[in-house]
């Protein structure tokens, strides 16, 4: 008989990216930040469809009302609202009885009431189309049933009577889109430019980096003002302007990584085998710079959002009726004493996003550090 021995399978090693994922998942702050960002983006994408309000809908009867979990109009506000409408109809209201979904009242006047003027109830944000239940004294006394139009403003309304919750979520779409798109522009330009300069080296590297130094000397605000003067204010211009400046830091980071990678054995072997310069950049140089680049991207997104908020605060950003967190914070700062909720809610969303991105960037930095393997 011959002894048969079974060989154990060789152990499977883990790559740097697998180790980085495991370390990232062990970082509670980074995971919590990732969940918070996912929920924030989901709320900004889906939330405006569920609030029941359009971001540009103006409620003239609900200007600067505070946030509330209960519906508007409040019961104590109904008599005053009826009185204002009755004044426009040139009648006197009486026997006002507010129920859950309607108001019963009697209008009296010295002359017959023009029933066409009852449309003022329908034009109001608080009431629907009235129904005449009794017509007495040759039209000088009308008994009405007026439906109540209930509205919920969880975050309150702004100075124009627009729902602040809807506008905050729409502003999140704009701010996050500008942050991601501008970062994408900076990523594409900076990685390609820095990797090319670092790998080629020599005079080409010197000339390319001197161009970067010249662009660094241009004031950012002056550059944006010039773009606004020549091309006008629009959403696309915002992320192009920001991305066209922020790629400079990305290029320097990638260039530093490429200078060390070009001396590695696998790059020298690829050169000896006759691989083209573009092939070496695509297959070896750029993929091996992604670790620091990913970390920098998570830190660049909040920087871009702050830049957009700053530009919007100065009036150079997105324009009405579209909005961003910077625009809302600017409006809230001007009315902080009378309506503090106009500043608190958009600022809370912005601060939460910035903290989450910074914690995620710290977690990625620790996870992708090869010295921690």
Q: What would you note in describing this structure?
A:
The chain has 373 residues and is α+β, with helices and mostly antiparallel strands. The protein is 59% helix and 7% strand. It is built from 13 helices and four strands. A hairpin with a 4-residue loop joins strand 3 and strand 4. Helix 5 crosses helix 11 and helix 9 runs antiparallel to helix 10. The longest helix is centred in the middle third of the chain and has 37 residues. The protein is elongated, with a radius of gyration of 31 Å.
Q: Which key phrases capture this entry?
A:
373 residues; alpha+beta; MetI-like fold; Gyrase A, domain 2; elongated
**Assembly state here?**
single chain
Helix content: 55-70%
Q: What is the beta-strand fraction?
A: 5-15%
Please state the average pLDDT score. 83
CATH architecture of the largest domain: Orthogonal Bundle
Write out the strand line-up for the largest beta sheet, numbering strands in chain order: 1-2-4-3
Main sheet characteristics:
4 strands, antiparallel
Content-based structural category: alpha+beta
Report the top-level CATH class of the largest domain. Mainly Alpha
Globally, the shape reads elongated
Written as H for each helix and E for each strand, in order along the chain, the element string is HHHEEHEEHHHHHHHHH
Number of domains: 2
Number of helices: 13
Low-confidence stretches: none
Q: Determine Rg (CA atoms, Å).
A: 31 Å
Number of β-strand runs: 4
InterPro entries: BP-dependent_transpt_permease, MetI-like, MetI-like_sf, OppC_N
Pfam family, one: OppC_N
Subcellular location: Cell inner membrane; Cell membrane
Domain ABC transmembrane type-1: 172-361
